[in-house]
Write a structure and sequence with these properties.
Number of domains: 1
Length: 99
Amino acid sequence: MDLNAFLILAAVLFCIGIYGVLARRNGVLVLMSVELMLNAVNINLIAFSAYVQDVSGQVFALFVITIAAAEVGVGLAIVMLIYRNLRSPDLDKIDQLKG
């Protein structure tokens, strides 16, 4: 396939992820949108790595996947604590936890 096809796919996924982060109020859906954006970045890294025939982009993509897995674990723990305290995963109600 052509490099442009992968770049367009990654741009569409990244835009969907940005929309999900900005429009959603549910903490789990925001985390899923961040993961979608990270996957779009991984597609770009691997596409450019294959285009220049170098392995460094693929290695960096593995590091991004590892960091994303850790981010999901920490983020899910935070969302579960918010749900336990407020009985709602709504991110607009986080300001009630002040003080």
